[in-house]
């Protein structure tokens, strides 16, 4: 009997030790997973599946080499958004030097969506080729039958070769595409960029696709939104029904406004976007926009951050990466941003902040510590 009691106490103590650790968010602080290691999923994308949250992100290693893909895309799961279980590496880089996905390439901002018809999990990411800096500007595709992987790499490419955006006027199609004839930056260059200078330059070979997000609408249609035209203009591209390709239908949005790090969510039939400006790993003022359709037109709403001058200039020292709709709560959305630490990328941290609505605009305020009851009070 004593043995049984001792065993019960031991297993209860074990259970308590393993029990959920977090009951709230501590934005920007070290965030331990179930293995007591800081979560390693940067430029994250979130998928809700069977009432669980999944967090996919760039798995970084220590040191500057960690800015390149040495391991692949990591994945975590959670039931409550506070406590995350490390589910391992969803997409691994390859050892084969002939693979485009070879170790040392760049994989950024991976996003995963689920296709109801094919029952496949579809991952798209920003892909740069090994030893070629950021010049390839491709989008990559990998798929899996299991949400946590392993994902099989399918292809990478520059989208829309030989296809004009649906909102690009015929009158502009024959203008010059000679980027080098402009002084950069200059007002003339800026005007030409707005009117599609880089779009025309890349028309034959395919468009640039860097920072990206995916958005699946209520009707099951999926959109791939990415920084194109040398990061000057966003492209919103419709995916095919199986989500494994671009349908060819796409628009240019917020022309020449230099948006990166797009994240989209839908509320009351309207589409909202958070994004950043263009300063590499350094933070800059956040931006927001609204539209009646994912393909636009989008109307800029300005900086979504409310706070001190420094907070507003830096998006609370972060760059947007995703917006998570909270399961079971109406109109509850969480902004997710990265605090990049390029000298030692593995140290990068995350900020989760509740999205508030004021005068029909989404806004963010800093909170050192908060939990999901926030959405009940507001
Ligand atoms: C940022 C971008 C990141 C990464 C970085 C590289 O602007 O959002 O995803 O590409 O530049 O400098």
What features would you describe in this structure?
- There is one protein chain.
- By secondary structure, the chain is mainly beta.
- Residues 7-17 have low confidence and may be disordered.
- The chain has a domain at 31-157: Glycosyl hydrolase domain, family 43 (Tachylectin-2, Chain A), CATH 2.115.10.20.
- The protein has a 4-stranded antiparallel sheet, with no helix packed on it.
- Helix content is 11%, strand content 38%.
- Bound molecules: beta-D-galactopyranose.
- Beta-D-galactopyranose (GAL) is lined by residues 43, 108-109, 211, 260-261, 280-281, 319.
- Belongs to the glycosyl hydrolase 43 family.
- Residues 1-17 form the signal peptide.
- One of its GO terms (biological process) is carbohydrate metabolic process.
- Spatial order of strands in the largest sheet: 1-2-3-4
Question: Regions with pLDDT < 50 over 5+ consecutive residues?
Answer: 7-17
Strand content: 35-45%
Ligands present: beta-D-galactopyranose
* CATH architecture grouping of the domain at 31-157: 5 Propeller
State mean pLDDT (0 to 100 scale).
95
**Fold-level CATH name of the domain at 31-157:** Tachylectin-2, Chain A
- Annotated CATH homologous superfamily of the domain at 31-157: Glycosyl hydrolase domain, family 43
The CATH first-level class of the domain at 31-157 comes to Mainly Beta
Gyration radius, to the nearest Å? 21 Å
Relative helix content = 10-25%
State the oligomer. Answer: single chain
Shape: globular
Counted by DSSP, the helix tally is 5
Element-level helix/strand string: HEEEEEEEEHHEEEEEEEEEHEEEEEH
Q: Cα distance, first to last residue?
A: 53 Å
**Backbone structural class:** mainly beta
Q: What about the largest sheet?
A: 4 strands, antiparallel
Number of strands: 22
Protein name: Glycosyl hydrolase family 43
Organism: Cecembia rubra
GO biological process, one term: carbohydrate metabolic process
Signal peptide: 1-17
């Amino acid at each position: 009997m004593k043995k049984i009691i001792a065993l019960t106490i031991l297993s209860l103590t074990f259970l308590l030790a393993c029990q959920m650790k977090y009951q709230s968010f501590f934005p920007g602080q070290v965030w331990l997973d179930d293995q007591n290691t800081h979560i390693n999923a940067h430029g994250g994308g979130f998928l809700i599946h069977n009432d669980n949250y999944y967090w996919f992100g760039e798995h970084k290693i220590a040191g500057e080499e960690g800015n390149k893909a040495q391991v692949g895309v990591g994945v975590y799961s959670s039931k409550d958004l506070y406590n995350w279980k490390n589910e391992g590496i969803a997409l691994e880089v390859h050892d084969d030097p002939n693979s485009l996905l070879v170790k040392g390439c760049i994989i950024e901002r991976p996003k995963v969506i689920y296709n109801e018809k094919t029952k496949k999990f579809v991952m798209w990411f920003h892909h740069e080729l090994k030893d070629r800096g950021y010049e390839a500007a491709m989008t990559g595709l990998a798929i899996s039958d299991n949400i946590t992987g392993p994902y099989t790499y399918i292809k990478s490419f520059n989208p829309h070769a030989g296809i004009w955006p649906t909102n690009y006027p015929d009158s502009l199609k024959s203008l010059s595409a000679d980027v080098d004839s402009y002084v950069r930056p200059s007002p003339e260059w800026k005007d030409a960029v707005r009117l599609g200078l880089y779009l025309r330059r890349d028309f034959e070979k395919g468009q640039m696709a860097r920072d990206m997000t995916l958005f699946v609408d209520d009707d099951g249609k999926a959109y791939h939104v990415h920084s194109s035209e040398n990061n000057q203009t966003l492209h919103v591209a419709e995916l095919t029904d199986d989500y494994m390709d671009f349908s060819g239908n796409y628009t240019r949005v917020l022309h020449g406004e230099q948006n990166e790090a797009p994240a989209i969510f839908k509320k009351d039939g309207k589409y909202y976007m958070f994004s950043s400006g263009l300063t590499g790993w350094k933070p800059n003022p956040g931006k927001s926009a609204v539209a009646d359709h994912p393909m636009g037109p989008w109307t800029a709403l300005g900086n979504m951050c409310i706070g001190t001058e420094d907070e507003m200039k830096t998006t609370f020292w972060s760059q947007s990466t995703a917006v998570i709709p909270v399961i079971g709560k109406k109109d509850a959305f969480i902004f997710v941003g990265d605090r990049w630490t390029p000298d030692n990328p593995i140290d990068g941290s995350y900020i989760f902040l509740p999205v508030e609505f004021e005068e029909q605009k989404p806004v963010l305020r800093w909170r050192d510590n908060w939990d999901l009851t926030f959405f009940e009070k507001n």
